[in-house]
Structure formats: C-alpha cells, structure tokens
Amino acid sequence: MVTAVKARPQLQLDEKVLHRPELEELLDERGKLKERVGKARKAYREADEQARGIILEMDLAHPVRVGRWQLSKEDRPGRSVAFETGPRTAVRIRAVVED
Predict the structure, then answer these.
(1) pTM confidence score
(2) SS3 for 47?
(3) Bridge partners for 19 per DSSP
(4) Contact assessment for residue 72 and residue 55, using Cβ atoms and an 8 Å cutoff
(5) Which H helix or E strand runs over 57?
(6) How far is the CA of 83 from the CAs of 79, 86, 87, 88, in angstroms?
(7) Cβ contacts of residue 1 below 8 Å, gap of 6+?
C-alpha cells in the first residue's frame, strides 16, 4: 500500500511511504547491526595496525609461531592491476534523520 507522507519530515515533493512493518523492523535491526559492526571494524583495524607494526620491526627470515598464530613476512614488488566490472543494480539504504 502506498500513501502520502504525513507523519515524518518530507524529503521530496512527491515522496511516498510504504507501510511495511516487517521491512521497517528488518531495516531497524540492520541499522543497529551496522553501527555495531562499524565499531568492531574500527577496533579490529586498530589492533591489526598495532600487531603489524610490531611484526614489521621483527627480523623474520622464516615463519615463527606466537601462541596460535603463525607469522611470516615477504617483500613483494609493486605490480600493475586492472579489472572490469559488470552491470549491476545498486540498492541504497540510508537512515532518515527525524527530529
């Protein structure tokens, strides 16, 4: 069912609102999970950067083990990379800020 916007701030002149409670619930849950995953990714990046910094300072001629982790280093020369993408349909989901 499509209805005109009334309860929420209007974003466009011809904006329509779909009344789909099950989809709205899924999108709300998705938003909460996206926020949590963003925080987890930031924490991971920081921990990864610190660990890699320590490993890069080590002289590792051969792989070594630290706890359950195996560490090694390998110098790789630069290279040229090119690729093509195929057609796709983009779906954008973003939150509407409400006052």
Answers:
(1) 0.63
(2) helix
(3) none
(4) no
(5) helix 21-57
(6) 13, 10, 14, 16
(7) 18, 19
Residue 91 in tokens: 């779906």
- Render pLDDT for 68-80 as a digit per residue (tens, 0 to 9): 999 999 889 999 9
In order along its 99 residues, the chain shows pLDDT tens digits of: 555 544 556 666 777 888 999 999 999 999 999 999 999 999 999 999 999 999 999 988 899 999 999 999 988 999 999 999 999 888 887 777 765
Which is nearest to 19 in space by CA: 4, 39, 36?
4
* Cα angle, residue 45 at apex, residues 75 and 77 outer, rounded to 5°: 15
Amino acid at 34: K
